[in-house]
Sequence to fold (604 residues):
Amino acid sequence: MTDTSTPTTAARRIEEEPLARRSTVLHDLATVARRACRSVFREPEFFIPAIIVPVFFFVVNIGALQDVAEGGAAAAGQELDFKAFQLPVAIIFAVTGVSRASALVIDIQDGYFDRLLLTPIRRPALLLGLMAADLMAVLMLAIPVTALGLILGVSFETGIVGIVVFLLYGSLWGLAFAGFPYAIALKTGNPAAVNSSFILFFPFAFLTTSFLPQEALTGWLSTIATYNPVTYVLQGLRSLITEGWVWDDLAKGLLAILGVTIVSFGLASAAMRGRISHR
Amino acid sequence: MTVAIATHDLRRSFGANHAVDGVDLEVRAGEIYGFLGPNGAGKSTMVKVLCTLLSPSSGTATVGGFDVATEADEIRLRIGVALQEASLDPKQTGRELLQLQGMLYGLSKPNIRRRMDDVIGLVDIGSAIDDLVESYSGGMKRRLDLAMSLIHKPQILFLDEPTTGLDPVSRNDVWKEVRTLNRQEGMTIFLTTQYLEEADELAGRVGIIAQGRLEAEGTPAELKRRIGTDLIVAKIDGDLDAAADAVRDVDGIDSVEVHGEELSAAASDGAGAISGVAVALNGSNHRVTSLTLRTPTLDDVFLDVTGAKLSASHEASDTSGEAAS
Fold:
């Protein structure tokens, strides 16, 4: 070094009060959610595949399997409304994996995430705000799928209130699962890794009672389905359609959702802490 | 005198790479401080530490009188930052992003409206402010990025290579905006740049950083005076050391340095000394391909303190397309 000046003046605080101030978590959450919700409406590519997949499976499964499933049940002396049985599956297909995680990765790559970190925003709002947009998105997907079920003749034992609970219940599952892609997005900052998180969807959505009731499953599939939280979510959703207010089924489903939420958002929170720690 | 930014023995390492390596500096409130260095010198790392995105490995740093390691929240309320790449959401309009930024800084609705009018006027984006950012040109993105960093009227503004990649017209616009902010708002501005001209034009004081170390500091005029009043630069085909020896004996020459194919002779009266230099070189039978007289630039200072030309490293990085760090 040839001419380095060493600080000789004690750093004094600039006395002028800043115009900026810290807001509440709720205010910050609403601000982040506002932007995320606006983006959802500006990205049709976010919705179109997400709505096609559940509608496709719902219609094809009914067309291909309804007679076989209902005939088999009748032969065993049981009554089965296969459309009602499949509607919760369509909801699970619609809401599982829906999140703003891809947008979060783009924010990380483009530097907008750093811009957010430079503001006095409360850090939990960065994730919670996106979840608020996710809630809106999953409801926007679940509502048309449920409407299709109603059009095809599915009726709810629990009435209109049951339909609302059905939508919220499915949406809660969607939110619980969203923690996984967020964890991957925050940990890796890599869009390909986030897209590959869709793989998680398959064991959750298919190794369960998607096509047959639990008692009809055998062997390893039955064992896995017993430990798959989606089994209990489906059970809770189906109870609202065909059985009425079965609190036991609803509670088991909610516990399953809570368990997945704890795991997925535990991972997402840890990844967030890692990303915003001063590296 | 209020000190806006102060660092003492500040270090930041990434494994074995010491990106910032024991920097001591002091930036006074209200001044424009230029941090000049080539790609990879440690400029952006320094900015990221000062604006709380990175924590120091050791040493201390205060911004606005608050410690970057322990009082980051207080610092964030007082600083504005435009990082090297314009960090914007392409799916929002310019107006939406500014409004959002105001909300993130906790401004009231009337304050947001007032400040939006102020910053939109300053950066001159025009009616495009209501268009989606994805339709903006590079220059417009930079200007919006600057507007976003100003929405909360920060006391200290960090600009990390604000004009890299911009065309000359956009570069001049940004310079004008920086001067306006400093003169009219009294804003302290910490500006990193790899452009000598930019540091010369804007900065009241300049720090030269190379390999993470602050190698020299002063006003552009002070730094240039280190070299001498005038410089006589000769490009020579032949033995440069022998030519330098010949020039050293010329009356009025203060010092002679050899860099690459060039020989630089510092003189307090270049016009008076240049004929002697020409005669000396001619007499020593060297083939002189060019002989010029000019005043020193910051590039000469950079060459003097680091042994390398900043303009050469800049051109090399432009050619290779390397990202600045």
In short: Residues 54 and 90 of chain A are 5 Å apart (CA to CA). Residues 25-276 of chain A form one domain.
